[in-house]
Amino acid sequence: MIPRSDGARVGHDCPVHTYLPENLDLSFIAAGRRDAAAYFVGRLYLGQHVAGRDPDEFQAMYSPLLKAQLGSDYRREVIDPLLEHGVIEEDSSYSTGWKGQCGYSRSYRLAPAYRQAQFRVVPFTHHEFVKRLASPPAGGTTHAHLSAPVHRHLARWFDRLSVAPSYPADVLPLRAWAEGHRRFWPCRYGRVHSNLTNLRREYRYHLTLDSVGEPLVGVDVKTSQPLLLGLAVLNWVKVLRNEDLRDYSRQMEREWAERVGGEGGMAVADRIPYLADCSSECLSDTRCFVDVCLKGDLYSRFVSRTGLSRDQVKKRFLATLYDRPPGAGGVESDVVTAFRQEFPGLWVVLDALKRGNHAPLPCYMQTVESWLVIWRTCGRLAEELPDAPLLTIHDCLVTTERYVEPVRRALLDEFDAVWGVRPQADPKALAA
Predict the structure, then answer these.
(1) Which residues, other chains included, contact 329 with Cβ-Cβ below 8 Å and sequence gap of 6+?
(2) What domain of life does the native source organism fall in (predicted)?
């Protein structure tokens, strides 16, 4: 059986299926195209309920991939009828990419009536459509499409991760995973996306790693995303000139374009704006920010200043770092106000980096994160400890109790090698 790009499996002895809102009737679609319509709607539904996308968010689709999966006439025979009958909504825009980056087709989302509906299983029965899915297009994500040894290593361990038989069948992320909808793909910024990365913590109790009797443990650096941003600002010119990072970014962009069947564009590491020399005040402020991150108590400062819970602060804090600044379409939230008062010099730097277009900065930092955590740390562990279980939840490395210390040490060694710091990295039970 061949894993597909949406995770469904295709095989002669196993019908392909998807999951649709139980209140959806697709009888208005021509019989020969109903499977294609179900597949398309299923991607939107699974994107919301399994991949964790915001139901109000439009999901970008890529025309070459849609043509390969749905056929060249997908717009007239699938998309248009779904729009006319109010099943999906379209943002009516087309992104051609930014400064050479590969663009998107239009983006879509489910209509409100279907977003929170319970699911039902819908098998694919049309022979030609199933045959098309069984022939991997450019967007296929079998292990043969993973050229990097570290990605193949992580994929092999992910293949051994499964849902225990006693899982609650009414929980779609677990149900889809157990029934063969497996997702494992590196994005254009090098982050690995899988069923595990978006699975809510309380559902992780139902996971089991084949032939491994030990509990799974997560190892990650405290406040790692703010810390990485602060370290990058302090070392901006050095990071920009790092050829290993730039080569990595170009490789991720190239491989991603091959998977979606499009043309690669300019890698994110090649389109980050130059940061003019910071004032001594800005540098001092950024060093203070990094010191707070290294102590692991960054969010607690903003809890006391805003009265919000730690989880609320964390969510809004990342938006504060990467969203449009107030005055350029951003929101002046309580966390934004507190951040500007606490770290005014760093705020000036971030404002300069996001001026004109705020989007490249978070993409660049995702690339920096994946380069450090996956490319360098996981790549090292794959060579030095190939028998050690290894999974990732973005910046968190998952292993077993026996290998916690060598995994933790490798992660801190890479932080030290790149940034000259050894932050706090405390292990925690995966389902804790």
Answers:
(1) none
(2) Bacteria
- Nearest to residue 389, comparing CAs of 227, 207, 249, 236? 207
Summarize pLDDT for 399-409 with one digit per residue, the tens: 999 999 999 99
* Same domain membership, residue 262 and residue 145: yes
Fill in the DSSP letter of residue 207.
Answer: E
Based on the domain organization, do 113 and 160 belong to the same domain? no
Q: What is the pLDDT of residues 264-288, one digit of tens each?
A: 667 777 777 666 656 778 889 999 9
Is 50:140 a contact under the CB 8 Å cutoff? no
- Rounded Cα distance, 321 and 347, in Å: 9
**Exposed/middle/buried for 55, CB within 10 Å: 0-12, 13-18, 19+?**
middle
Give the pTM.
Answer: 0.85
Pairwise CA distance, residues 39 & 414, whole Å:
42
H-helix or E-strand containing 192? strand 192-194
Are 366 and 190 in contact by the 8 Å Cβ rule? The answer is: yes
